[in-house]
Amino acid sequence: MPPALVCDIQRFSVHDGPGIRTTVFCKGCPLRCRWCQNPEALRFENELIFSSERCIACGECAKACPIQAIRHDHGPHINWEKCDACFVCTEACPARALEPAAREFSPAALVKELVKDREFYEPEGGVTLSGGEPLARPDFLQELVPLIKHENLHLAVETCGHFNWESLQPVLKQTDLVLFDLKALSEDLHRKLTGQSNLVILENLRRIIAKGIPRHLRMPVIPGLNDSEDELKRIAKFLIELGETEIVLLPYHRLGESKLEKLNSELKPLGIPSMSEKELQAKSEVFIKAGLRVRKP
Ligand code: SF4
Ligand code: SF4
Questions:
Q1: Counting atoms of ligand 2 from 1, which one is nearest the CA of 62?
Q2: Which atom of ligand 2 is nearest to the CA of 70?
Q3: What is the value of pTM for the model shown?
Q4: Are residues 117 and 52 in the same domain?
Q5: The domain spanning residue 220 has which CATH number?
Q6: Which residue range(s) make up the domain with 89?
Q7: Ligand 1: distance of its center to the CA of 75 in Å?
């Protein structure tokens, strides 16, 4: 089985499920949310990242590139179309200004990393698989998840909901908590904001609820994009009809934007400020009035 590409393993995370957790950011996602906080995790293939703040303008990368995809002129200029992600330049760079976006892990190697933090997981923490879309690799998860459970670790999975239900049944049965992100209820709006229809996503959400799989339903609130009163009311009504009682609202913040210029990303900065506590509270009122509890992440 091919290894998984992992962008980051973030330790001591407190916003990705209960307790203290180790969060694994898997690479690859079928959606292209315009506000993505982890743009380095969007493509399924590995890619080059250039952190200009680390660069000492030594020119070693341009000398090392076997296909002249880097030109040196007071610093490196990368021809992103030409670069074939061979990563020879990352070996030559003395400042770690050039790096692969992700590293390869086998299921066993990943679990070996996760158990290192075991003592911090007590009493209610554990491991969270995030991304990207962690459920995009059923073959990998079918091997990884039993290993995580064999170690008796609490497992949460953060998902955009766009996954193949049939092939993930064994995985979901062993998942302790699904963190399910709903971006928009209107199909047209969802397609406009993420590049994909939400029909599969809504169907998977219905199935998760019907199966009684423990879940936190979450919504990233993006000012001017998915937070109109009508849209929020529609989402609240939909969740109540499904018998849900609460929602977690995730306020938009700009942290992901600084990563865009390091990549050859198809996303562009939204150019809107991070959301304030007061703005989020105003959006929460729509859900509260509809009868839902609103929780912080
Ligand atoms: S990753 Fe390979 S092709 Fe791309 S710039 Fe570096 S050395 Fe050149
Ligand atoms: S090798 Fe690294 S430090 Fe030197 S110019 Fe290239 S990116 Fe900058």
A1: 6
A2: 6
A3: 0.95
A4: no
A5: 3.20.20.70
A6: 48-100
A7: 15
